[in-house]
Amino acid sequence: MNIMTYVNNVGTMTSNKYVGERIHIIPLGHEYDRAIAPFTNLKAERAYVLSVPVNSELNPDMLKKQNHFTKKVITELERAGIKAIDQRVNLFDINETLKAISILIVNEKKKGNDVLVNMSACGRKTSFAAVMAAMVHKVGVYYVSANNYVADNNGDQYYEHGLSIVEDFNRPIELLSPFKIMLPKYESQIILKELYEQNEKKLSLLEIIKKLGSDKNSVEGFENCPSIIKDTKITDRMGYRSLLNKVNRNFLSELLENNYIERKKSGREYYIKLTESGETIACVSGLLEVTSSSPNRIK
Question: Which residues form the signal peptide (predicted)?
């Protein structure tokens, strides 16, 4: 069965009804046609254009070319009456890309907006992150096929079309058939987020319980944590044991089973350490802020 579904009708792009706006997320490399072509049939109110920061430590010529395409795409979207948001992200880092796309999807869905993700206007690593984030958060992700590719990366065709040439902007785009990528339960996602934010990606069991009961997280069932743990001292051992059992049974067992965390021992103490798989899930949860964004914008 073909994983792609051809789409040239806005109403069939996604199955979920929405009452807000239609939003596109476009991780952008050296492309123009593949970024702009979908808007011929898939109208939108807003589009996030994700590209590397203006001050990135990249090859100056490559950065100059990227800035050319970012400005060109944003200018055309604005000309078409679509509000374009210039968002800067380290697209060469999969985790940063996952964080950036996921938090945008989560925030827009909370507003009742319909979100579509373009996987075809960027490099392979970025495309992987775009697909994963879209599938996890159950939004549409589409691919724009090219008719041809430019032969000279410094010629007029390149600066007009980008690396890929789409001859007919009315041709159907391709919507990936959705497949299910399950996130762990919300409380477990909080644990992954908290682990990710630590320098060594690890926490003791006591620290995990404290973070679940913090004002920032306020996980149900952990409201009495401040009266059980004062600073690093356990003042109510029965209460602490109850919370520890709840953490192990309800959250950590799930994360261990999926290889998102490891249980380690240091002396007499156990601690929980995030695995590489766990880092990926933390980044795609939509709970983490992007750390590599730059306030720089193309002038």
Answer: none
Name the CATH architecture for the domain at 4-176. Answer: 3-Layer(aba) Sandwich (3.40)
273's CB contacts (< 8 A; 6+ apart) are: 195, 200, 201, 202, 261, 262, 263, 264
pLDDT at 6: 55
State pLDDT tens for residues 203-217.
Answer: 999 999 989 988 788
Q: Which of left, alpha, beta for 201 (phi over 0: left; psi -120 to 50: alpha)?
A: left
Give the residue among 5, 1, 67 at the shortest CA–CA distance from 30. 67
H-helix segments, 197-234: 205-212, 225-228
Task: Give 186-284's CATH code, choosing from 3.40.47.10, 2.60.40.1120, 1.10.10.10, 3.40.50.80.
Answer: 1.10.10.10
Looking at residue 35, its pLDDT comes to 97
| Residue from 154, 173, 133, 168 nearest 30 by CA | 154
For residues 191 and 252, is the Cβ–Cβ distance under 8 A?
yes
Residue numbers of the chain with a pLDDT score lower than 50 = 1-3, 9-12, 15-16, 293-295, 297-299
Res 128: pLDDT: 96
Please list the residue range(s) of the chain that carry CATH number 3.40.50.10770: 4-176
Which one-letter amino acid corresponds to residue 224?
N
DSSP run (H or E) holding 117: strand 114-118
Contacts of 83 (CB under 8 A, 6+ apart): 45, 46, 47, 77
pLDDT at 107: 96
Where does CATH 1.10.10.10 sit in the chain?
186-284
Cβ contact 195:262 at 8 Å: no
